[in-house]
Amino acid sequence: MDFTRPARRRFLGFGITAGLALVCPSARAALAIAPRRLQFESLHTGERLATTYWADGGYVPDELRRINHALRDHRTGDVKAIDPGLLDLLVALRERLATQAPFQIISAYRSPATNAMLAEHSSGVARKSLHTQGLAIDIRVPGRQLTAVRDAAIALRGGGVGFYPRSDFVHVDVGRVRSW
Q1: Which tens digits make up the pLDDT trace of 158-175?
Q2: 101: how many CB neighbours lie within 10 A of its CB?
Q3: Which domains does the chain have, with CATH numbers?
Q4: Is the pTM of this model over 0.85?
Q5: Distance of alpha carbon 127 from its chain centroid, rounded?
Q6: Neighbours of 121 (CB within 10 A)
Q7: E strand or H helix at 32
Q8: What is the DSSP string of 23-45?
Q9: Would you list the DSSP string of 109-125?
Protein backbone atom coordinates (compact mmCIF):
# COMPACT_ATOMS: atom_id res chain seq x y z
CA MET A 1 0.00 0.00 0.00
CA ASP A 2 1.41 3.40 -0.98
CA PHE A 3 1.03 6.04 1.73
CA THR A 4 2.74 8.86 -0.09
CA ARG A 5 0.73 12.02 -0.39
CA PRO A 6 0.54 14.57 -3.16
CA ALA A 7 2.75 17.61 -2.59
CA ARG A 8 -0.22 19.73 -1.48
CA ARG A 9 -1.14 17.27 1.27
CA ARG A 10 2.48 16.98 2.48
CA PHE A 11 2.62 20.76 2.56
CA LEU A 12 -0.67 20.89 4.48
CA GLY A 13 0.64 18.41 7.05
CA PHE A 14 3.85 20.37 7.37
CA GLY A 15 1.88 23.61 7.65
CA ILE A 16 -0.25 22.28 10.48
CA THR A 17 2.82 21.04 12.34
CA ALA A 18 4.67 24.30 11.75
CA GLY A 19 1.64 26.31 12.83
CA LEU A 20 1.43 24.39 16.07
CA ALA A 21 5.13 24.97 16.67
CA LEU A 22 4.69 28.70 16.14
CA VAL A 23 1.84 28.82 18.63
CA CYS A 24 3.99 27.07 21.22
CA PRO A 25 7.69 27.53 20.36
CA SER A 26 8.83 25.35 23.25
CA ALA A 27 6.98 22.47 21.63
CA ARG A 28 8.86 22.84 18.31
CA ALA A 29 11.35 20.04 18.94
CA ALA A 30 8.71 17.77 20.44
CA LEU A 31 6.43 18.18 17.41
CA ALA A 32 9.21 17.14 15.07
CA ILE A 33 9.66 13.81 16.82
CA ALA A 34 6.54 13.29 18.91
CA PRO A 35 4.46 10.25 18.04
CA ARG A 36 1.04 11.03 16.60
CA ARG A 37 -1.75 9.21 18.39
CA LEU A 38 -5.47 9.04 17.79
CA GLN A 39 -8.40 7.29 19.38
CA PHE A 40 -11.63 6.50 17.58
CA GLU A 41 -15.00 5.17 18.64
CA SER A 42 -17.39 4.16 15.87
CA LEU A 43 -20.92 5.09 16.85
CA HIS A 44 -22.33 2.59 14.32
CA THR A 45 -20.23 -0.49 15.08
CA GLY A 46 -19.19 0.19 18.67
CA GLU A 47 -15.58 -0.53 17.73
CA ARG A 48 -12.79 1.40 19.40
CA LEU A 49 -9.26 1.99 18.23
CA ALA A 50 -6.32 3.64 19.98
CA THR A 51 -3.32 3.93 17.72
CA THR A 52 0.06 5.55 17.23
CA TYR A 53 0.06 5.96 13.44
CA TRP A 54 3.19 8.12 13.15
CA ALA A 55 6.41 7.38 15.04
CA ASP A 56 10.16 7.63 14.59
CA GLY A 57 9.77 10.23 11.85
CA GLY A 58 7.26 8.42 9.66
CA TYR A 59 3.86 6.86 9.20
CA VAL A 60 3.40 3.32 10.53
CA PRO A 61 1.87 1.25 7.69
CA ASP A 62 0.29 -1.41 9.94
CA GLU A 63 -1.39 1.29 12.05
CA LEU A 64 -2.64 3.10 8.94
CA ARG A 65 -4.21 -0.19 7.83
CA ARG A 66 -5.90 -0.54 11.25
CA ILE A 67 -7.25 3.01 10.91
CA ASN A 68 -8.50 2.30 7.38
CA HIS A 69 -10.40 -0.71 8.71
CA ALA A 70 -11.83 1.18 11.70
CA LEU A 71 -12.99 4.05 9.46
CA ARG A 72 -14.47 1.79 6.77
CA ASP A 73 -17.94 2.13 5.31
CA HIS A 74 -19.97 0.54 8.09
CA ARG A 75 -22.84 -0.24 5.70
CA THR A 76 -20.87 -2.24 3.12
CA GLY A 77 -17.65 -3.13 4.93
CA ASP A 78 -15.63 -1.53 2.10
CA VAL A 79 -12.23 -0.22 3.17
CA LYS A 80 -10.27 2.60 1.56
CA ALA A 81 -7.05 4.31 2.56
CA ILE A 82 -7.73 7.34 4.74
CA ASP A 83 -5.49 10.23 3.77
CA PRO A 84 -2.77 10.64 6.42
CA GLY A 85 -3.23 14.41 6.10
CA LEU A 86 -6.73 13.98 7.52
CA LEU A 87 -5.27 12.07 10.46
CA ASP A 88 -2.71 14.83 11.02
CA LEU A 89 -5.51 17.39 10.94
CA LEU A 90 -7.37 15.40 13.61
CA VAL A 91 -4.25 15.40 15.80
CA ALA A 92 -4.03 19.17 15.42
CA LEU A 93 -7.75 19.48 16.23
CA ARG A 94 -7.37 17.31 19.32
CA GLU A 95 -4.48 19.48 20.48
CA ARG A 96 -6.41 22.69 19.85
CA LEU A 97 -9.35 21.30 21.84
CA ALA A 98 -6.96 20.22 24.65
CA THR A 99 -8.49 16.77 24.94
CA GLN A 100 -7.45 13.15 24.84
CA ALA A 101 -11.02 11.93 24.31
CA PRO A 102 -11.60 9.58 21.40
CA PHE A 103 -13.16 11.01 18.27
CA GLN A 104 -16.66 9.63 17.96
CA ILE A 105 -17.11 8.67 14.33
CA ILE A 106 -20.41 9.16 12.57
CA SER A 107 -19.01 8.67 9.07
CA ALA A 108 -15.56 8.41 7.54
CA TYR A 109 -15.01 6.49 4.31
CA ARG A 110 -18.20 5.96 2.32
CA SER A 111 -18.34 3.74 -0.74
CA PRO A 112 -19.76 5.36 -3.87
CA ALA A 113 -22.87 3.16 -3.50
CA THR A 114 -23.44 4.27 0.10
CA ASN A 115 -22.84 7.88 -0.80
CA ALA A 116 -25.32 7.72 -3.69
CA MET A 117 -27.94 6.14 -1.43
CA LEU A 118 -27.44 8.84 1.23
CA ALA A 119 -27.49 11.62 -1.37
CA GLU A 120 -30.87 10.38 -2.62
CA HIS A 121 -32.32 10.77 0.87
CA SER A 122 -30.62 13.97 2.04
CA SER A 123 -29.77 17.29 0.47
CA GLY A 124 -26.87 17.53 2.96
CA VAL A 125 -24.87 14.79 1.21
CA ALA A 126 -22.65 15.88 -1.67
CA ARG A 127 -22.85 13.64 -4.73
CA LYS A 128 -19.06 13.91 -5.12
CA SER A 129 -18.31 13.73 -1.40
CA LEU A 130 -14.73 13.72 -0.16
CA HIS A 131 -15.83 10.84 2.09
CA THR A 132 -15.63 8.59 -1.00
CA GLN A 133 -11.94 9.46 -1.36
CA GLY A 134 -10.93 8.93 2.27
CA LEU A 135 -10.50 12.70 2.69
CA ALA A 136 -13.37 13.48 5.11
CA ILE A 137 -14.78 12.48 8.47
CA ASP A 138 -17.86 13.38 10.52
CA ILE A 139 -17.12 13.56 14.24
CA ARG A 140 -18.13 14.44 17.76
CA VAL A 141 -15.72 14.98 20.63
CA PRO A 142 -16.92 13.92 24.08
CA GLY A 143 -16.66 16.70 26.62
CA ARG A 144 -16.50 19.45 24.00
CA GLN A 145 -19.38 21.53 22.70
CA LEU A 146 -20.11 21.03 19.01
CA THR A 147 -19.57 24.76 18.42
CA ALA A 148 -16.11 24.50 20.03
CA VAL A 149 -15.20 21.62 17.71
CA ARG A 150 -16.43 23.60 14.70
CA ASP A 151 -14.59 26.77 15.73
CA ALA A 152 -11.34 24.91 16.41
CA ALA A 153 -11.52 23.12 13.05
CA ILE A 154 -12.19 26.39 11.21
CA ALA A 155 -9.28 28.09 13.00
CA LEU A 156 -6.88 25.37 11.79
CA ARG A 157 -7.69 26.20 8.15
CA GLY A 158 -6.80 22.66 7.14
CA GLY A 159 -9.74 22.12 4.79
CA GLY A 160 -13.52 22.11 4.83
CA VAL A 161 -15.62 22.30 7.98
CA GLY A 162 -19.34 21.59 8.01
CA PHE A 163 -21.52 22.26 11.05
CA TYR A 164 -24.55 19.99 11.53
CA PRO A 165 -26.05 20.81 14.95
CA ARG A 166 -29.36 19.03 14.25
CA SER A 167 -27.48 15.82 13.51
CA ASP A 168 -24.94 16.55 16.27
CA PHE A 169 -21.68 16.35 14.32
CA VAL A 170 -18.96 18.37 12.63
CA HIS A 171 -17.64 17.43 9.20
CA VAL A 172 -13.88 17.89 8.68
CA ASP A 173 -12.04 17.31 5.42
CA VAL A 174 -8.71 18.07 3.78
CA GLY A 175 -10.20 19.58 0.65
CA ARG A 176 -10.14 23.30 -0.04
CA VAL A 177 -10.58 25.62 2.94
CA ARG A 178 -14.27 26.52 3.35
CA SER A 179 -17.04 26.25 5.90
CA TRP A 180 -20.80 25.83 5.91
Answers
A1: 999 999 999 999 999 999
A2: 14
A3: 7-179 (3.30.1380.10)
A4: no
A5: 20
A6: 8
A7: helix 28-33
A8: HSGGGHHHHHH--EEEEEEETTT
A9: ---HHHHHHHHHH-TTS
